[in-house]
Specification:
Strand content: 5-15%
Pfam family, one: HTH_IclR
InterPro entries: HTH_MarR-typ, MarR/SlyA-like, Tscrpt_reg_IclR_N, WH-like_DNA-bd_sf, WH_DNA-bd_sf
Protein name: MarR family winged helix-turn-helix transcriptional regulator
Radius of gyration: 18 Å
CATH architecture: Orthogonal Bundle
CATH topology: Arc Repressor Mutant, subunit A
Oligomer: single chain
CATH superfamily: Winged helix-like DNA-binding domain superfamily/Winged helix DNA-binding domain
CATH class: Mainly Alpha
Length: 149
Amino acid sequence: MYSTNKPGSVPCACTTVKKLSRVLGRAYDAALAGSGVNNTQLAVLKCIARREGDPLSHIADELEMERSSLYRAVSPMERDGWLTITAGPDARSRTATLTRKGHQVVAKANTAWEKMHHQVIDRFGRKEWMALSAELDRLANCAEPPQDG
């Protein structure tokens, strides 16, 4: 069960969001269990599909992942035939493309993901989710270094 800090205390923003991420991650991973992919893998595959041909560094940036973490994440996906990795436009970059099998994995997992997504949003409230999502974006911007000016 998700718990918060003591009443009247100001909870750590980082710890609070990480705890929530773990709670949601477990729920989505449980929903995806029969699909053969976890929520992180699905997010990576969907991002690669959306940004086909983009360097993996751009995928990492969009997903707010360290590049080395993304490379470790895509390695088993390449091994399992879900995607192919090729040299990018310059010597240091690589791109990924979903294979037919990768598209099938995404399609199968998307059904379970959509069901879980709607369950969470419906229980929380669509309007409330949209407001919280905007506030989380604002919180993320607050963590960025201040702009000199």
